[in-house]
Write a structure and sequence with these properties.
The structure is a homodimer.
Chain A (H helix, E strand, L loop, with lengths): L16 H16 L6 H7 L16 H19 L13 H28 L5 H29 L7 H22 L8 H13 L2
Helix pairs in contact in A: 1-2, 1-3, 3-4, 3-5, 4-6, 4-7, 5-6
Chain A binds a DNA duplex through loops.
DNA sequence: GTCTATACGAAGATAGAC
DNA sequence: GTCTATCTTCGTATAGAC
C-alpha cells in the first residue's frame, strides 16, 4: 500500500524528504510548469512547512531540483523501454503485429507527454538531458524498428523500401497524431485512433 | 523600406505605440516565453522608457497583450493560408505534385512553430484562440487535402483509400517530422527532408 | 501619451534557534 | 533536519507632473 500524499511507501517507512520533494516537484512542474511553481508549494507538497527554507537543505535552488526531476524521469523512461511483439508472437500476421506495435507506441507517447512538455518548456536549461531524451525517444526507436522492418522485407511480409526512412515516417506519423490530439484536445481531422492505425498499416503493407 | 527596430514603417511614418508594443512583445514572447518576459522589457523593445508604466496606457495587463499578440498572429496565419499546386499545374505528375505540397507544408509548419510553441506554453490562458488555431492548422488542412486525394483516387492517380484518414496520416507525419526536428535540433533518425518526403510519396502512390 | 517616482506583493534565498 | 523570521530582489501596477 502506498500513501504518496502522506509521504509513506510500502512497509510504512517514511519516504526520505529528498524523495518527497522530487515527487511533489514533478507533479507541480507537470501541472503548473516550472516558472509557475514556487518553492513554497514544493515544500508544502513535501509536507514541509510552507515558506520555511527547509527545501534548501536538500537542493541548492529551483533549477537544481528541475534537473534532478528531469533526470529521474528520463531514467525511468530508459528502464521501461520496450518494443512491440515479434512477428512470431502473432501467428505470422504482419497486420496484427503492426497494429499492436502502433497501439503500444501511442500509449507510450501519451505517458511520456508530461515529460516531453516539461523539457520543451525549459529547453534552455536542460541541454544534456534533452539530447539524451531525443536519443531515447526517437533515434533508438527508429533503429530498432528499421531493423525489424528490414527483416520483414527480406521475408516478403511487406514491400521492400528504405527501412530506416520507413521507420522514421511511421514514428513521425504517430508522434504527430499524439501531439495534435494532446495539443487540441481532440484527434486531428476527427480521425479515430483505430482508423488512423488501420490506414497506417494499409500504407505499409500495401493493397 | 521598413525599419522595424526604429519603429518606422513604409513611408517614414512612426508606427503607433500600440503596434510597436505588439511587435516587441511578440518577439520577446517567442525568445523568452510569456513568463520569462517582463513589462519593462516590452517597454524597452517598444522604445518606451524602461520601468515607466507607459505600457499600461495601451494594454491593461501582460495577459491582455498576450491575447492581442496571439490573435494578431492567428489572423496572419489565416490570411496566408494556401494549398499546394493543382495536379494540372505539374503536367499531371502526381509524384511532383505531392512533393511540392509536402515541401510547402513543411516550410509552413516551420514558420508557424513559434506561434504553436507560445500557444502551447500558455494554453490555459488561450482557450478560444487555441481552438481556432487547431481548426486552422489541422482540420481545414485535412479537409482540403482529403477532397483533393478523393479526386485523384477517382482518376486512378493514386490507389483508393479512405481519403480523410489518408490526409490525416500524411499531415501527422509532416507535423511529427517538423516537431521532432525542432525539438531535438536534428531530423529524426537522421532522415533528411528529401528522403522523408520520397518515402512518404512512395507510401501514398504505391510501387 | 510619456515621463519620474513609488507602492505593493510575490518569490528566492539565508540566519540562527531548537 | 526542521522550524520561525527575515532579507533582498524583482516585477506588476499606480499616482501625478509635464
Amino acid at each position: 500500500m502506498s500513501l504518496v500524499d502522506g509521504g509513506l511507501v510500502e512497509g510504512g517507512m517514511a519516504a526520505p524528504t529528498r524523495e518527497r520533494i522530487l515527487d511533489g516537484a514533478w507533479r507541480l512542474f507537470v501541472e503548473q510548469g516550472f516558472a509557475g511553481t514556487t518553492i513554497t508549494q514544493i515544500e508544502a507538497a513535501a509536507s514541509l512547512a510552507a515558506g520555511s527554507g527547509s527545501f534548501y537543505r536538500h537542493f541548492r535552488s529551483k533549477e537544481d531540483v528541475l534537473h534532478a526531476v528531469v533526470d529521474r524521469e528520463v531514467e525511468r523512461v530508459d528502464a521501461e523501454r520496450n518494443v512491440g511483439p515479434e512477428l512470431s508472437d502473432t501467428g505470422g500476421d504482419v497486420r496484427v503485429a503492426l497494429a499492436m506495435e502502433f497501439q503500444q507506441r501511442l500509449r507510450n507517447l501519451q505517458r511520456l507527454d508530461p515529460l516531453v512538455r516539461l523539457v520543451q518548456q525549459e529547453r534552455e536549461h536542460l541541454g544534456g538531458s534533452r539530447d539524451y531524451l531525443g536519443d531515447l525517444l526517437v533515434d533508438r526507436n527508429v533503429t530498432v524498428r528499421s531493423e525489424r522492418f528490414a527483416a520483414w522485407m527480406e521475408r516478403g511480409a511487406i514491400p521492400k523500401r528504405d527501412p530506416e526512412a520507413l521507420a522514421t515516417v511511421l514514428m513521425c506519423a504517430l508522434v504527430g497524431y499524439r501531439m495534435s490530439s494532446d495539443y487540441f484536445d481532440r484527434p486531428p481531422g476527427d480521425t479515430s485512433e483505430e482508423a488512423f492505425i488501420t490506414t497506417l498499416i494499409d500504407l505499409v503493407v500495401g493493397p
